[in-house]
Amino acid sequence: xxxxxxxxxxxxxxxxxxxxxxxxxxxxxxxxxxxxxxxxxxxxxxxxxxxxxxxxxxxxxxxxxxxxxxxxxxxxxxxxxxxxxxxxxxxxxxxxxxxxxxxxxxxxxxxxxxxxxxxxxxxxxxxxxxxxxxxxxxxxxxxxxxxxxxxxxxxxxxxxxxxxxxxxxxxxxxxxxxxxxxxxxxxxxxxxxxxxxxxxxxxxxxxxxxxxxxxxxxxxxxxxxxxxxxxxxxxxxxxxxxxxxxxxxxxxxxxxxxxxxxxxxxxxxxxxxxxxxxxxxxxxxxxxxxxxxxxxxxxxxxxxxxxxxxxxxxxxxxxxxxxxxxxxxxxxxxxxxxxxxxxxxxxxxxxxxxxxxxxxxxxxxxxxxxxxxxxxxxxxxxxxxxxxxxxxxxxxxxxxxxxxxxxxxxxxxxxxxxxxxxxxxxxxxxxxxxxxxxxxxxxxxxxxxxxxxxxxxxxxxxxxxxxxxxxxxxxxxxxxxxxxxxxxxxxxxxxxxxxxxxxxxxxxxxxxxxxxxxxxxxxxxxxxxxxxxxxxxxxxxxxxxxxxxxxxxxxxxxxxxxxxxxxxxxxxxxxxxxxxxxxxxxxxxxxxxxxxxxxxxxxxxxxxxxxxxxxxxxxxxxxxxxxxxxxxxxxxxxxxxxxxxxxxxxxxxxxxxxxxxxxxxxxxxxxxxxxxxxxxxxxxxxxxxxxxxxxxxxxxxxxxxxxxxxxxxxxxxxxxxxxxxxxxxxxxxxxxxx
Amino acid sequence: xxxxxxxxxxxxxxxxxxxxxxxxxxxxxxxxxxxxxxxxxxxxxxxxxxxxxxxxxxxxxxxxxxxxxxxxxxxxxxxxxxxxxxxxxxxxxxxxxxxxxxxxxxxxxxxxxxxxxxxxxxxxxxxxxxxxxxxxxxxxxxxxxxxxxxxxxxxxxxxxxxxxxxxxxxxxxxxxxxxxxxxxxxxxxxxxxxxxxxxxxxxxxxxxxxxxxxxxxxxxxxxxxxxxxxxxxxxxxxxxxxxxxxxxxxxxxxxxxxxxxxxxxxxxxxxxxxxxxxxxxxxxxxxxxxxxxxxxxxxxxxxxxxxxxxxxxxxxxxxxxxxxxxxxxxxxxxxxxxxxxxxxxxxxxxxxxxxxxxxxxxxxxxxxxxxxxxxxxxxxxxxxxxxxxxxxxxxxxxxxxxxxxxxxxxxxxxxxxxxxxxxxxxxxxxxxxxxxxxxxxxxxxxxxxxxxxxxxxxxxxxxxxxxxxxxxxxxxxxxxxxxxxxxxxxxxxxxxxxxxxxxxxxxxxxxxxxxxxxxxxxxxxxxxxxxxxxxxxxxxxxxxxxxxxxxxxxxxxxxxxxxxxxxxxxxxxxxxxxxxxxxxxxxxxxxxxxxxxxxxxxxxxxxxxxxxxxxxxxxxxxxxxxxxxxxxxxxxxxxxxxxxxxxxxxxxxxxxxxxxxxxxxxxxxxxxxxxxxxxxxxxxxxxxxxxxxxxxxxxxxxxxxxxxxxxxxxxxxxxxxxxxxxxxxxxxxxxxxx
Lengths: 738, 738
Known about the structure:
Strand content of chain A: under 5%
Largest sheet of chain A: 4 strands, antiparallel
Family (chains A, B): Belongs to the CSC1 (TC 1.A.17) family.
Distance between the termini of chain A: 41 Å
Helix content of chain A: 55-70%
Strand order of the largest sheet of chain A: 2-3-1-4
Domain CSC1/OSCA1-like 7TM region (chains A, B): 351-616
Number of helices of chain A: 32
Pfam family, one (chains A, B): RSN1_TM
Region (Disordered) (chains A, B): 689-738
Number of strands of chain A: 4
Keywords (chains A, B): Calcium, Ion channel, Ion transport, Membrane, Transmembrane, Transmembrane helix, Transport
Oligomer: homodimer
């Protein structure tokens, strides 16, 4: 592949991006797409559709301007701390790669270019290898520039990282102080309540906490597990509701479907609907009679009088049997993942191990598409596999497209499978909050992506078996130093195709857009009205992967940096736009993603240094190798310093702050208000049955509604009292709301 | 080496052991050795010397009987929980290796013996290899017996481990409940108190805790750092005291030393003594004038009103800057390692990393003596190195002694360096309690020993460079499976010499015995009167190392098991005897050693299985290999289960228990008593200057006595008030008291 092929690839991608961006700027002005592109705004204020005018069909850049002008405070107010953390990650990448690009393009690139090859055929015809470190002679003195660049990049990255971490720590503290009456601060989740034949779980909890935490215990609320009968019942109810909706609409507006093939079906559907209605009418009776069957779980929310008491109780080991009375701070009410609260605590460690093994197995199975992709970059092997294509592949343009563009596309498509699978694994792991589940999925996707995109690609290109590489530890730097520049063209096209195109797809929201059109113009319904929460578990790994590629390639293949820089600039605008307009911040982790981001950047830096070590070793400049080792040690020490200095704030609640908040609230008398909120905050069923069926955009999905069989007392003091009329389950409406 | 050579080695060792044991049984009856062999009893009740009688010179086994008859409760009362944990470890080893010995000697050994070699020359002339797995044919069906033995040993080990862990957890809980008024339960160590120019550290502490923990805060006590002037002064004072003692005794009892060469010296010593006396007289004046120079450290002991409040405060993050106000539960007063309290908290993480690196470096440097030892077992290379010895080495007996005995002796001697070095590393690490320091040293010594005795020996015997082995991960099982049986003779002689002899040395207490004789008969002083605390950091690694060797060799070299069994039987008696008579339990960790012991046993089991995997691979029995993998997984799961089930009790205080204790004490009115004790418990200077100089057997060594420059208030409420007359440092009297 030469520079011309690369530019072809870049040209295709730039064209695609420009078209898509223009299309977006038009589509977003159409009133029918308002639910797709302004999901967040719509969910807050119902926008009226604008009158028809020509301006609606002229592409414009107003969204870019708006995204640019938004300040961090507004972003914080709109998207929560997590979105700010995300944008800070993009800004950090932007900054560090600007520095790296300046240094590498103006210092390292000329050194590479004027290395071994002396007679250059003219820049467009130049092979890409000429721009990589492979072109530098062994023992060349000019390798010092690479070492210098390494130092500058590492130092700037550490300085920037330090200030980002500091800034985000401050934001997190402000976030905690700001969410002043958040019920989660007063609440614990108690799991593994020991079962006793004499008393109910609820009585056990009351007894335990009045005995040991009498001064701070306020009240509690049990968690209920929905029995199979309820589940079936509610599913049937939901089903009939949907079917009735469809059939009602179809009778109102006869159309192709109705006239053609569904006419007969509608009648039977109607019968079904009536049947299920009558069943539904009786369901409350059955519910009451089967009340005893609804299982109380060995888990409860316990409310405390002060924030400090809650934190403190969550931190200590309650019982001499560590598998009983396990306490944890409760997630925010919106953040609770109810069905995982039902999992017996004793299973969790097994589940963790099982998911770990499953993740590793999945990683290895995934080698198949990756190897296939790698095969495509080697055109000759493709010709062997598909002899019919030989004629086509002989054409220059086609071969450029195939080697330059298709592999990444295959990889991208294959990668669409990964986030849902990882999310499933994280669900099975048993996290009780949706933000933790997402964080765990993010972690899995991240390392999965780095492994499968970077390492496997690097090593299938150069060595046959990946695992055999890792069996010989000390050769790894050398192997990497050889393999990474050799795979330069793959990484560049990956940035061009996967990077830029994924941003364009993100902006276009292709899947919701299609859903919207199908619902609106084919099903003739109200249109797409799901609000989405930001998919951190797919987007953070993607941005970090490009950071990883950037760091590891910066010195070896400096030509990649301009493309990366474009990616980060686009990412900056697009993600800001999406946070402002599309995604809704239902729940958030409070900046918990940052330590993971920080660690990944550190790993990228270390990887860069290890590869440089390999390069200097191969190029026989032992002194430059010697200078790289202190850098490695410095990076590790810096990481450890940050871990000491900032990490605890992300893992623990700060006593000082909570006590201050407690004291302030007690003085101002707002404590009573907080207690009032607690009573209704953690409700397994906050919506009435009919609402739950009709409102597709509801913010709660896993909330299974069950009456409390135990508490037959009058409502008031006991928050575990749930209205027995709420008895319909709303389940499985998740699709992309993960 | 054949069986006869092994039996020679065993014979030598048995003879040495019998002689030493008999000698011990005589020596212990001599009144002059009472301080050596009954240090613990003497320190409690001053025993009178028995009248002279013949019985004193007849060897007897009464000590064995006494050690056998002691119950665990008595041991607990005498030696504390740590000693019980130690003995439980020995009992566990005894049990599991009894099972292993029965299975391996009666099932595996005959299979090995009747393997490849068909014409046996008669058992004494048999090479040791005939008894190892190397004698089994490839693909032999009899390898199933090895697999079966593996299953039985693993299963029994896990069952025994489970019950031991359960038992020790119960003991630990009883230990906490039992130490009812222990001041450490009410006390926190606060470090990294932020410095402010307006107020002193003491005021900062008072302000912080009255603001945030007003309801539970009782009082506090600052930690002081001894300035250089004080240190010099007190050292001078101590020196002069010692010199005066010596000179006084010498004038009283003129002897060889006095008449011969020290006569002139004594006079000058007297002058020195008088000089320093006058200096000492002035020292209090200087002390007062220099009072301001004695540095208050950024650390304090903070006392709380209840145990629960103290635990809770230690668990939460106090400040939004995690490097400020770091709280931890205080160690027992006897357990405090004062000089490490002075270390600025911010240094600790650097120190931890530095010691880690130093430990690794030390491990690598230590390869030199180990390689030398390994060279000795290969007799021919020794002949090359020392041609003069050739004649001697030709003799059969000598060669048997050298290959069978000397290598281990060299190794043992070299290993005498390790524990003090590791203890030094642990001191530098900055642990604030002596038990934690010992535990950390124990951990270091353990992995150092396993690495240097097992891995390095195994691989120098078979491969040239150790590190190159570990660069190829997947070959390790196979390499081990080849190398371990090849080193069978080394391990057997190591058990015989290092194992048995070290026990005999432990029993004889050679170093204190020599000191005693030198002091008593040459210096003509009172005799050895240092009380020792049990050297867990040398003894636990030793016993665990033999366990490790036992597990890894059990299937490959079953002949080692009878020797090991003898070792553990002897260990059982000897350590019980020593705990009962010699060592004093000044401070203890409360069973904290057990999780480490448990982990090491698990690692040993895993190692055994990995080696078996290699063996089955080499011997081409893939099904047996297949059966080993579930065993590996089962062992890991078992370990994880134990970690979940028991470990938290060792890491945390149990709220339930502490609150119960608080409530009971409050009801019985004993709380006031506890508060009274707190005032004097954590005193940096519990002894008056003269005491500190004369009492060699004092329990406090690092206690540097400093007056409190800040608190000029009358004594009473403030426990930070220290009597200003205590101003002499007592330092460096540690020798073996680590």
